[in-house]
């Protein structure tokens, strides 16, 4: 059986605070004299019902973790460790999502907060061998004008190179806020060449997916799994080339589905959707990137060829440069060609030539996503 940690892949749905190692959270809490809820430090994944009370509990825990991030050193440590963890799991491309709003008071403002993340993403990526882009995201819990401010900030740092902003997202409780009111912020981001990567279709169903498609014209959709409930909506997702960032562990932890087997991964792939598996918030869900591929294999019966197709899908949905895409796609082919994956090349180390599928280029079939905020606001 081929080693899934050696399968080159792209990780497109990982929140900044939610990427933290539990040990790092404990260290930061101790350093800043903060008392944490015990559930944040135990080994059990969070499980809440898919209602407003469940989301409130999730958000309170997320806010407690985020409150421990209070300096430039803290922020740099989180980014560097996220890159290290992704490299260990075969991820050759990471697009980490952050809303700099929560960290701005500790480092001198929004611009310094974002630039710290960008600088460390570039440094750590080059040191470890992972190509890292950043997604700036706004919160549904704040005024749409705040989203425009973030979109303009993201636009000033747009690019497809290491440590640059590649996309603009919108997150937090899908039941809150007026989706259409955030359209102008996404227009600003789109004019700067950023991918539109809002959340949608996890807590709410197909009607919300259509609302996001109409108002925000996404390239990628954070989650989007509930589109499987309406074949017409799913066909539209496929026809419009919108990639889905599917995070099975998140769906189960947040009560959207009762068990891993209930996540409609097979249905999405069978319909022709471009799917990129993601870990979302491993700090709370206790499940990292490779675990999502293991679920696809063990629970949904995906063969190694189908798992390789998922990895290719994640790479093609990324905003990585053509050269990075080509290298990673060639690594996927090498992994699949190997008898057991040994020596076939991990995502961060494969340095092969181009791949014909890379001709899709950035801007097709999906790109980056998401956010975070202050108090009861956002993941990021």
Percent of residues in helices: 40-55%
Radius of gyration: 19 Å
Q: Going by CATH, what is the homologous superfamily?
A: Metal-dependent hydrolases
- Domains (count): 1
CATH architecture: Alpha-Beta Barrel
- The level 1 CATH classification is Alpha Beta
Strand order of the largest sheet: 1-2-3-4-5
Name the helix and strand elements from N-terminus to C-terminus, one letter apiece. EHHHEHHEHEHEEHEHEHHEHHHH
Characterize the main sheet.
5 strands, parallel
Structural class: alpha/beta
Q: What do the pLDDT scores average to? A: 90
What is the count of helical runs?
15
Measure the end-to-end span: 35 Å
CATH fold field value? TIM Barrel
Describe the secondary structure blueprint for this structure:
Elements: E1 9-15, H1 22-32, H2 52-66, H3 72-88, E2 91-98, H4 104-107, H5 110-128, E3 131-139, H6 144-156, E4 165-171, H7 183-191, E5 195-196, E6 199-200, H8 206-216, E7 220-223, H9 231-239, E8 243-246, H10 248-253, H11 265-270, E9 275-277, H12 282-285, H13 289-298, H14 304-317, H15 322-337
Parallel strand pairs: 1-2, 2-3, 3-4, 4-5, 6-7, 7-8, 8-9
Helix pairs in contact: 3-5, 6-7, 14-15
